[in-house]
Specification:
heterodimer; A: about 140 residues; alpha+beta; Heat Shock Protein 90; five-stranded antiparallel beta sheet; 3 helices; about 35% helix; B: about 140 residues; alpha/beta; Transcription Regulator spoIIAA; two-stranded parallel ribbon; 7 strands; about 50% helix; disordered N terminus
Chain lengths: ~140, ~140
């Protein structure tokens, strides 16, 4: 029995013009998932969005707090698990303390992590050595 | 009748210059995002000629809408037919425009959203904040 593995490892400069590139990689991967029985177009949009939000977050943290000028994004698919890791070198934050958006009095910011948490199955943010890792898992 | 016609022409001319300056300023200061502003049925309709709104260009969109409002034009419809993707910063830019228009007793409505773009408004409940119309005619009919 053959187990197919897809892994994409990308390093980009900390510039928002690369967000569309990262998002489009997510879209293409979703459309190539032969064994996925759900709505591939919805998954394509969601992966585009989640990768865009996570990368934009890492760029923001990197440019605000450090001189680090690259962001690494690792996408790994094996069996029915799609795993995304986004590495940043900022000060980090407490994922659990980020509040849900106030839907009755919406604000202009703070919806990015809500999208990631809502559309994916697991989200963690941990510090390892000199960098932080936002790990996002979607079960396919 | 002649005086009225002259005044109408002057108003049209003045508006044309004003519109031209506005559009010129968009292209002068906002080179990364293509926007088109037209006055239709008394409303300022901002056509977003981009497939994607994200953190790279949402700041420009926010500034463009703010610029329109600062000119005193607070009856605004954003036409999003060509937009296939919007992220949280894009939603934030539109929400900023909505709040700024409302602060000046104006209105900012949205028209012609693609289904997946609309789903982002539904997920964040922003569809309860914005007036969202299927097309421009429906938007014009419902403006008061």
């Amino acid at each position: 029995m053959c187990t197919s593995v897809i892994q994409v490892d990308v390093i980009i400069p900390t510039q928002t013009k690369y967000l569309s590139l990262i998002g489009s990689i997510g879209e293409r991967i979703a459309r190539e998932l032969d064994n996925y029985s759900g709505d591939k177009e919805a998954l394509a949009y969601h992966l585009n969005l989640v990768l865009t939000e996570a990368t934009a977050n890492a760029i923001k943290h990197a440019t605000l707090t450090t001189l680090e000028n690259t962001v690494r994004i690792l996408i790994h698919i094996e069996d029915n698990e799609l795993n995304i890791k986004v590495y940043d070198h900022g000060q980090g934050f407490d994922l659990e303390s980020v509040p849900l958006p106030d839907f009755d009095q919406p604000k202009e910011s703070g919806m990015g992590l809500f999208f990631i948490k809502t559309l994916m199955d697991s989200v963690t943010y941990t510090r390892l050595h000199d960098c932080n890792i936002l790990e996002i898992i979607k079960y396919l | 009748m002649v005086k009225t016609d002259c005044r109408t022409r002057k108003i049209r001319y003045a508006y044309g210059i004003h519109l031209f300056r506005g559009i010129f300023r968009f292209f002068l200061t906002l080179p990364a995002m293509i926007l088109k502003l037209e006055k239709i049925n008394g409303y300022h309709v901002l056509f977003i000629e981009e497939e994607r709104i994200d953190a790279h260009n949402s700041g420009e969109l926010k500034d463009a809408i703010l610029h329109i409002i600062e000119q005193g034009d607070t009856a605004i419809i954003i036409q999003l037919e060509k937009v296939r993707f919007i992220d949280s910063s894009g939603l934030g830019a539109l929400l900023s425009g909505y709040k700024n228009a409302a602060a000046k007793s104006g209105k900012l409505a949205l028209a012609m959203l693609q289904p997946q773009v609309l789903s982002m408004f539904e997920l964040t409940r922003l569809n309860r904040v914005f007036e969202i119309y299927a097309d421009l005619n429906e938007a014009f009919d419902n403006q008061t």
